[in-house]
């Protein structure tokens, strides 16, 4: 006859299990291991913890008593090993312009599988995440044990009111200028794009906010070139081939659009002092132009970096908008149409992705192609 009794050990270490039946007895040595999750040096096993987006979290797996083991982390939400924004002015000339090139990029650095199998990992969460399980699975002597904690990542609340111009016409043409909304503030017209921003910080969310704007542009000029006995139609293109940084100032680290920055403490509601505006405008150089086409998309982010050490910039709001325009005339000496063709999209607020780019719009070099 066999008797089975369930046993649950609560104290780690080596225990002796003994049983006696009549004059017979038997003993069994049992090793009990405890698996724990520590977040920023605090034991959160079986409990919960939260962080603020952009703050580094030190996660550590511990096994008691000490023993050789392997482990694997299962982390919820969007996290990275690092997120790096680079903005470094150089002495390199940009051909055909008066600008100096800027080395700039935004890039995420991810954990490798082997790094997520280390005892200690130090991730940054870059997007808010509601309550979800965070696990580590430990393997000791061919047996698995999983420890769990409830995790959430919090972010400041950002309110935006973003619009594109509702003026008629929205796209203007004046001599050799084509633009969205207005050519300058003195025109007393609405800007092509405008965004009001306010932020509300909660507990432990003191930090700074900046505006970052990316642009994906395709612009084409058609010009007439004449030489001895020959007339050529040439298309001059500026094509970013994807999103690049929309920024002019050449100051180290100043990647923020229009220098917009706001630093606030915890438990505050504050607005940017001025709306974020943009009115893309292009000046045609010379009189030999017979046509112009532009198609541009914009991604305007509100970025946030918590105060303190070991923090990174993260997106907390994204607004997208775009415009396209074209204007053509029969020849380089003909009159231009009074109004260009084109359209403007409404500004849309979306769940932010993480902005990644390589290069700056002002550093895109023009290319030329002869049109048959």
How would you characterize the overall build of this protein?
- The chain has 372 residues and is mostly beta strands.
- It folds into two domains: 32-154, Immunoglobulin-like (Sandwich); 157-371, no CATH class.
- It is built from no helices and 31 strands.
- The strands form eight sheets. Strands 19, 20, 21, 22, 26, 27, 28, 29 and 31 form a nine-stranded antiparallel sheet that branches. The protein has a four-stranded antiparallel sheet with strand order 4-3-6-11, with no helix packed on it. Strands 5-14-13-7 form a four-stranded mixed sheet, with no helix packed on it.
- A hairpin with a 2-residue loop joins β3 (34-39) and β4.
- It is elongated and about 120 Å long.
- The chain starts with 12 loop residues before the first strand and ends with a strand.
- 30% of the residues are buried.
